[in-house]
Amino acid sequence: MEGTSPTWRDSSACNIGSTVVVFGGRIGTSYSDRVCILQCEQRPIVDKNEKVEEEEEEKKEKEKKEGGEREVWRWEDVTDKITGDRPAPRASHAAGVVGRKLFIFGGDGGTVDQKQQPLNDIHVLDLGTSFLLAVWAGWGGGRERLTNNISKK
């Protein structure tokens, strides 16, 4: 495993192909608005003694014959690469993926004066452009939500 995995808990995790996107969560009483990705890749096993000048296609064929591939997992915190308005730090929220967009909904925004602050908002992160959009920050007649589930039918 490469990189540093997130340490918070009660976050959301969604996969898009070979990428897992983790958002938010908490450690004790601290809440997070961080976005981390885990890239799960298949990489060829390389003979360290081979010449660097070797053509890529020939190299791939040789690696397949000699040793196959290995799985490589790499964590990266991409929070600072994201543009737009970030959601408030939260835990116990829902997240789901549609196409290349991550939808983040509701959750627990922590405590103020010993009272839990449930959230009633939705944010969309376009994973293709790294742009985050607050779709709404609450709506009339809606209720705050904790421990939600978003799933595709």
Give a verbal description of the structure.
It contains one helix and nine strands. The protein has one helix at residues 56-66; strands spanning 12-16, 19-27, 30-44, 69-77, 83-84, 94-98, 101-112, 115-126, 131-136. The longest helix is centred in the middle third of the chain and has 11 residues, at 56-66. The two termini are 33 Å apart.
Short overview:
The protein is mainly beta and 153 residues long. Helices cover 7% and strands 49% of the residues. The longest helix is centred in the middle third of the chain and has 11 residues, at 56-66.
Distance between the termini: 33 Å
Radius of gyration: 20 Å
Beta-strand content: over 45%
**Shape field:** elongated
Oligomer: single chain
Largest sheet: 5 strands, mixed
Q: What is the H-and-E element order?
A: EEEHEEEEEE
Number of strand segments: 9
Contiguous helical run count: 1
Secondary structure class reads: mainly beta
Helix content: under 10%
Instruction: Order the strands across the largest sheet as they lie in space.
Output: 5-9-8-7-6
Q: Taking all residues together, what is the mean pLDDT?
A: 78
Low-pLDDT stretches are none
